[in-house]
Amino acid sequence: MDNIEQIIAAVAPADQSVGPLAQAHLDNLTKPTGALGRLEEVARRLCEMKGDTHLSQPQAAVTVFAADHGVAAAGVSLYPREVTAQMVFNFLAGGAGINVLARQAQAQVHVVDVGVDYEFEAVPGLIAAKVMRGTRNFAVEPAMTLAEARQAVLVGARVAAQLMDQGMDLLIPGDMGIGNTAACAAITSVLCGRAPAEVTGRGTGLDDKGLARKIQVLEAALALHHPDPADPLGVLAAVGGLEIAAICGYCLAAASRRTPVILDGFISTTGALVAAALAPAARDYFIVGHASQEIGHQAQCQFLGQRPLLDLDLRLGEGTGAALGLTLVRAAVAIYNEMATFESAGVTGDKVEG
Amino acid sequence: MDNIEQIIAAVAPADQSVGPLAQAHLDNLTKPTGALGRLEEVARRLCEMKGDTHLSQPQAAVTVFAADHGVAAAGVSLYPREVTAQMVFNFLAGGAGINVLARQAQAQVHVVDVGVDYEFEAVPGLIAAKVMRGTRNFAVEPAMTLAEARQAVLVGARVAAQLMDQGMDLLIPGDMGIGNTAACAAITSVLCGRAPAEVTGRGTGLDDKGLARKIQVLEAALALHHPDPADPLGVLAAVGGLEIAAICGYCLAAASRRTPVILDGFISTTGALVAAALAPAARDYFIVGHASQEIGHQAQCQFLGQRPLLDLDLRLGEGTGAALGLTLVRAAVAIYNEMATFESAGVTGDKVEG
Question: How far is CA B45 from the centre of its chain?
């Protein structure tokens, strides 16, 4: 998979014909029809993605893509840039939020340096795939060249392909990058056709003044670059981020092999948004695990046609909301596989007249 | 614990002084302040319940209380009465929804016959504590005598006490009883001061005509019995159910020993509602795991001062939504115990000026 266009061409819609067969099985389990609500929806969708009425517990992997953002210099985040590299070490040591929640959800965690502004030397466990030491500041120049953006997309696609080759059949993209909500708001504004003010939030906790400055920076940047929504890779290059590009490639590669992807918030959903802009059928493989507190996430979910499973006021990123979503996906698979049917349990399934 | 009044007297408020200490620990973990949202709230509340800043993964048990309802004869449910007993066998065989979701959440499942209209003989695994073979039809006479209601409350309290004696430190009440949403709507109407139409829903799936009949039955029953909201046990006796009374006792006993209870929907929350009406401080030990689709559940949550963690459109009961909630509680405990601090991970916690 060394060609983005080939991956895009390989993304086929999920098999909708399997849905009714899966639902018929669910309707035969010892519960009122539809009584397990969205767990039934998840089980049905997984069947459609696989094109098969048989489900098994997924082998799941979280991949945290880390990169720095030139736009952080424009004062759009509360935390200093060096936190990105520090958090990479935290992920590798197993002490970050995503490590804890992935363990709970029985998922592996991998960490990819796709553009951190730090030379890691040979750090055990880190997947070294640095395209550059952070993007340029898109407040004054394009974040990346088109070649750099494409290279970062392919980093994500290759990591996903390797994980699937190793037997992983459910992928979760995570993110780490101080300043990345600004890039995501810019991309969402362009691809969803919304004004920056409609899709820009407080990130790690900006106050009103900080939020106003962030919106101003984004408005000026979009006026400067005029990114074209019909050219998603061009949008990534102009105002995107390296980890966002990698997540886009990761989502595309997963969708091209009919593999479900759980998303968890504003950053990973931005990567998925670019993937869906490039290959609309990729939407069929996305499960939004958690609603972001960033206001732009609603526009993204609408674009993707997805409703988040959870809303626990999380705003950490890293894939944490998706890891929690994975516990619900596992519950859905268990329900599908392990519940008794009316017949096997000797329970009267026929309703009396209502 | 052979006296309801003793149990009520033993219910003390959670220790609010521990909350800020727990939050200080949470604020020191490698994430922006408050970024794990409701997981932090759950961890903090668990500390307040225990009165201790140390948490460990709970030993959790689900107890499904099963009973029949005389009011089912009034045509308020879609399913025939024999389904209650059939489902008891399904619980014991491990094939029901709650069995599957409890396994996923690492919780035991116990089943209590507190009033099923079926003679089980000696069924292995079933806790036999039948007060009577179902309530009387409260459309024409009180569902129970006060003595029967008190006996059912004590069944729940004793089971909870036994489980806590065995080391269980998190309890989940589940329910099974064809017709029970009608009893719950009646109780909720009285205790929350709402008209029956405001708190009566479709149960396992009534159509408009069935719903109108159910509301009519409840209005007539409340006019017949005039239950007094200041006498919660009297309300239980007049229009309640045996499993609802048992859940009330189970919640009271848990709260009296500072043990968290996860609730999951209209039936279990009705039991908790009666418990809170008897001992207001019991509220401090309740976590609402899942929002019910029954409209009366909102009034209940308001009464209890609780916001549900999940809303996955479940309407099965049995404790299923609470079992899913338990996976989030486990995630909250893991976060509290396992995440690195800024200092231990060498991450810069000081924010730059916003």
Answer: 17
Check CB contact under 8 Å for B95 and A340.
Answer: yes
pLDDT score recorded for residue B1: 54
With CA atoms as reference, the chain B residue closest to A309 would be B312
| Separation CA A141–CA A143 (nearest Å) | 6
Q: Are B248 and B153 in contact (CB under 8 A)?
A: yes
CA-based nearest distance B254→chain A, Å:
26
Select from A81, A79, A17 the least CA-distant residue to A50. Answer: A17
Q: What is the pLDDT of residue A354?
A: 33
Q: Which fold has domain B7-55+335-345?
A: 1.10.1610
- Burial pattern A271-290, b for ≥16 Cβ within 10 A else e, equals bbbbbbbbbeebbbbbbbbb
For A28, the 3-state DSSP assignment is coil
Which residues on chain B are in Cβ contact (under 8 Å) with A97?
A: 29-31, 35-36, 335, 339
Residue B126 has a CB neighbour count (10 Å cut-off) of 19
Interval B339-350: pLDDT, tens: 999 999 988 876
pTM (2 decimals)?
A: 0.95
Q: Which of A338, A33, A35 is nearest to B99 (CA)?
A: A338
CATH pick for B60-327 out of 3.40.50.10210, 3.40.190.10, 3.40.50.1000, 3.40.50.720: 3.40.50.10210
For B18-36, letters b (16+ CB in 10 Å) and e give bbeebbebbbbbbbbbbbb
Q: Where are chain A's structural domains?
A: 7-55+335-345, 60-327
Asked if pLDDT for residue A84 goes beyond 70, the answer is: yes
Cβ-defined contact of B334 to A101 (cutoff 8 Å):
yes
Query: pLDDT category, B77, cuts 50, 70, 90?
Result: low
Best mutation target, B40, B55, B313, to test chain A (most A CBs within 10 A):
B313
pLDDT per residue over B107-165, tens digit each? 999 999 999 999 998 888 999 999 999 999 999 999 999 999 999 999 999 999 999 99
HEC string for A67-83? ECCHHHHHCCCCCCCCH
Over residues B235-252, mean pLDDT: 98
Confidence of residue B354 (pLDDT cuts 50, 70, 90): very low
